[in-house]
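The pair is quoted verbatim underneath.

:::
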Amino acid sequence: MGIENFPEILKELVVENLANLTDVSEELECGESTLSRYATGRALPTLEMTVRLADYFGVTCDYLLGLDAENAYDSFSPCPPFGKRFKEVLTYYKVSRYRLVRTTGIAESVMRYWTQGKTTPSIANVVKIAEALGCTVDFLIGRCSQKIE
């Protein structure tokens, strides 16, 4: 399983929920063409849109992104600002940004902007960090409190 499975999982969730991309786009107040790009694999959602989609379908971000074969949780917390949560997770794992730079290949300056709240990471970078730390995307972003690997 991997993030390359996201388009197929998104399409399956739409069908399972007896919806279509128009219904989902209206509910989430995003363009149908945006969802179509996700469903065809031409684009990945932003971190914010990933959470909104996962909330809409009642699944973990890890399941939605194809990182987990099963939907492991049934309740979620509102996500704190990513920069704040990122600092908490680094402290929790006793990992420096420098070590993550070496592990993930993501520039330190980019991580610094996250911690300062200037930018948020792409979903691909969130997945890289979760994999490097051995945690779920949902734990990394603060959507759940359990560190299930």
